[in-house]
Specification:
Order of helices and strands: HEHHHHHHHEHEEHHHEHEEHEHEHHH
Radius of gyration: 22 Å
Helix content: 40-55%
Bound molecules: D-fructuronic acid, zinc ion
CATH superfamily of one domain: Metal-dependent hydrolases
Largest sheet: 6 strands, mixed
Structural class: alpha/beta
Amino acid sequence: MPTPTAALPSLARSELAAAVNAELAAIPFIDVHTHLFMPSLGKLGLWGIDELLTYHYLAAELFRSNPIAPDEYWRLSKRDQADLIWRSLFVENTPVSEATRGVTAVLEAFGLRADAADLREARQFFAAQEPVAYIPKVFELAGISEVVMTNDPLDPLEAPIWERGAAPDSQFHAVLRLDRILNKWPEHWPALASKGYAVDAHCTGSSTGEVRRFLSDWQARMRPVYMAVSLPDTFQFPDDGVRSRLLAEAVLPACRSFNIPLSLMIGVRYQVNPALRLAGDAVGRADLSALERLAAGYPENRFLVSVLSRENQHELCVYARKFSNLMPFGCWWFLNNPSIVEEITRERLEMLGTSFIPQHSDARVLEQVIYKWRNTRRTLGPILTNTYGLLVEDGRAVTRTEIRRDITRLFRSNFEQFRGAKAH
Ligand code: FIX
Ligand code: ZN
């Protein structure tokens, strides 16, 4: 963190861009949603060129530029998948998409050739990295101080590591992810029952109380900074289904007792093309009146909210103006492209001032934070400069200290305050 300085003189309009970009570069951000894993979670953590190239965003793009059938692609080794993607999207075609250009930005950040005909040099470099020493270097290149993970207590690979005792890491904050419980109860209630929680197929009787006990056990184990769930575009609340009952009787009371927010990521159309596996999800406009009823009905709860449909963004801003227990965050997934990030961020600044969280990376592979945060800074610079320029034009001077305060609020303290009590 830059050392605090006394208030600096007001800036001329011509000085704003340099001040904004310097403060964006100097302030380490908190990445409030990723799929990265702390070192003690072992091989769950993905890094290196083959993982970067086989990211599900790039797999989806491959099938548009190469005739290979998905089933045939999935039968290839990870190395062969990466070679095919490199050849198809980076050699035979120009890597102009957000996700392909991102890989070139990572290579450039490490001084590696982004126009190589093959992956020999890149593989040699990444194979020589030692993860624990490497992570701080990657975070420094990305300009982030810490990331928030996605941790699934019912994941058969991850849960046992936590149950054996995973060493915490101050740069990786845990999150209790609830998709299997809230969205797929029929498939997953037996896993809870097998662990001694008295739940049943229809979530009746002691089930919601037992889910609350399960959440309590995992809160003690993980010390999560929030709980989270991804929700379909069809999400309704309340309805007469299991998810509404679990939210009302287990999850929301648990969040209140732990003093942590619930993150709602709304608007996914799951597996519209199952052949693409993780790349098979799409987007749908959601009915955000469900969010209105949650925010109004549970004023003691705090909700981090990201919506996947561009068409839902403006109404999310309006709801955030009505309910201060809503915190819009990020330009999620298919929205994390400069053309859309600009639209969303400008309307948030216009309607919410600096009381929102502009971005998260959603990184699944460690080095992705390098390009995702470079892109955020590159997109945010002109937007903030323009915002301050309008303010100067309308008669209010701006100082460097104020710009530093605002960027710190947007990318650090909004989250730190909204998450509530510090993780133990
Ligand atoms: O639900 C989520 O956390 C989504 O971000 C992921 O499921 C999605 O695959 C993703 O990585 C988007 O960027
Ligand atoms: Zn995610």
